[in-house]
Amino acid sequence: MSLLRRPSGRAVAVGLAGSVVPLAITLPVFHMLQPTLPADLRGSSLITEIAVRLSLSSFPVIADALAELDLLNSELGRIALTASLITDVTSWFLRACFAAAFLVTEAKSPAFTTKILASFVGFVFSVAFVARPAGRYIAYKRTPAGDLLSEGSFVVVVIAALLSALVTDVIGFKYMIGPMMLGLAIPGGMPIGATMTERLDSFFIALFLPVYMALAGYRTDFSELGGHEEKWCALELFVALCVAGKMVGCIAAGLFFAMPIGEATALALMLNIRGIVEVAAINNWGDTMKATAEHYSTLTLSMVLITAAATPLIKLLYDPTGRFARAKRRTMEGARPNAELRVMACLYTEDHAAPLIDLLEASGANHDFPVSLIVLHLTELVGRAASVLKPHKKSSTASSPSDRIVNAFRHFEQQAAPGAVTVSPYVAQSPYSSMHHDVCSLAHSRKANLILLPFHKSSDGARSTANSAVRSANRAVLQYAPCSVAILVDHGLASGSACATASNRNLLQRVALYFLGGPDDREALAYAARMPESGGTSVTVVRIKLRNWVGMGGHDEVRDEEVLQEFWQRYRDDERVVYVEKTVEDGEGTASVVRSMSDKFDLVIVGRRGEDRDVEGSALTSGLSEWSECPELGVLGDMLATAEFASKVSILVIQQQAGITTGGDADYQ
């Protein structure tokens, strides 16, 4: 229901235009050509029903297809889902009205008419004022937070769905109206939706759906098409008119809202995807003898071809990450020293809150160096068809993990100096495979300088656990982010809960930065340069250089010297800041320096210096990447994360936004 509460104008326009235009084209053409059509089409309602079905977009089919394409939480994906849901709900409402009108006209007495209308109104009221409160009670009061439904609650929900279908069928309406209304009324996601998905999907999706599709395919007989070219060509004409009309309507609506032609075309293709709903409609036409064997085979083949053509074209025309690559450069290196630092902190669990808050507390936030903090709680999409990205609102029932995370950051905001920190919390639910869309989109819209990500491995002191899905999401953010990205490897900050930081303040008192050179290291230096402003943090910058190295005078080398000179000029009289130079022969010497010094600090900051970011053949890191376990941390970050002292020292690995020259920073300021 959240998609229907405040739909965007684009979604409404695309949904309505994509439904009205194909009907406006197909039905007049049918009436014009009706005398010349084959007899089995001329006197049948099949063409009208095909036009109505193909003018609509099925929400379950679109949601499943977009999830397969990893576009569920992209901008166009959300528009397509909203548009399809609007047309689905509108069509079911109109069908209910037409069914009611038909039953009333066929009624033999006013008493029977009154009984039908009263029964349906009573059913609607029972769903709204009985089933919905009962569903909320089961979801939020009876079921503990984070748990699935109990066996009794699960059985109650299933029986309610079956009864709703029975009631609407007995009244005289389509049996599917009842479960659809019930599904819209009760809460989605955890725990009801997640329980239904876990306990029923494996049964229905793995067993019944393949059997149903196999029977539909078995019923298709292509030999029936031979020798009946006139019949299937006439039918294909109207299918093509419906598809073309929907394309024209969706593209026209998209262009009206200044959407690029490529994206408008991709959106139209999304809404033309066909699936199980259309197959069920074709089967129904075959069962009721509205469609002959030739019609059935032709329509089934058409649905397969439409979807087979639309899917690769969508991938070809629409890349949701393209706008991030074209985004204006946003880095900390190019910003003014006292400019507001816009940081987006991403969390997958409550345990990620404490180390991130301690890191932010040491980041030098005060009235002169303010921090605008965007907090994004990321969770996997379970038991819900549409992804979610919205500002956080406190739960009206039991406290949720998002509530506890936001409370911890609100406490951090209140403990900071007035005006030093502002917190804007958000929540997102999406598949892990496309979760980076939400992260990058929010960072782009909020003009963040830095995205903070937790490492995919965590440890409780006794054992270490890794989440491969989180790792994939982090790597995608590193690849597509519109700003700089930092990954925090917590080996000493986690306090066990999101609110533990209240009694564990100033944990990061000793910070080291290893500077080898390059854009990532300069970005790391720009972040570390803010830390002495906190008053309780000392920063040691370790410049590692090659012995007897004669520079090439390139842009990076010149820029490295400039930022180091600026940093030292700024803090040369500050006893909390130390600058050290170490000379080494090769990568082994670099590793030796890092190992010998790192255990003296609480936090070590390094630039990522990934293979695509590092100077080719750099002698400072030669040979170190051969044993890399986590390339997303870079050479030094991976070495630090796997070293013997890693259980005591936390690591922050920073990557600067790539692809644009430094001159673009002026535009951002």
From TrEMBL:
* Biological-process GO terms, alphabetical: potassium ion transport; proton transmembrane transport; regulation of pH
Which species is listed as the source? Aegilops tauschii
Q: InterPro entries, alphabetically?
A: Cation/H_exchanger_TM, CHX17_2nd, CHX17_C, CPA2_transporter, Na+/solute_symporter_sf
Q: Name one GO cellular component term.
A: chloroplast envelope
Q: In the UniProt record, does the keyword Magnesium occur?
A: no
Q: Which domain of life is it from?
A: Eukaryota
Q: Which UniProt keywords apply?
A: Ion transport, Membrane, Potassium, Potassium transport, Transit peptide, Transmembrane, Transmembrane helix, Transport
What does the sequence similarity comment in the record state about its family?
Belongs to the monovalent cation:proton antiporter 2 (CPA2) transporter (TC 2.A.37) family. CHX (TC 2.A.37.4) subfamily.
One GO MF term on file is: antiporter activity
The UniProt function text for this chain reads: May function as sodium-coupled metabolite transporter across the chloroplast envelope.
Residue ranges constituting the Cation/H(+) antiporter central domain according to the UniProt record:
401-500
Ranges for domain Cation/H(+) antiporter C-terminal: 511-659
Q: How does it sit in the membrane?
A: Multi-pass membrane protein
Put simply, this protein is called K(+)/H(+) antiporter 13
Enumerate the subcellular locations listed in this protein's record, separating them with semicolons.
Membrane; Plastid, Chloroplast envelope
Domain Cation/H+ exchanger transmembrane, chain residue ranges per copy = 2-313
Pfam families the UniProt entry points to: CHX17_2nd, CHX17_C, Na_H_Exchanger
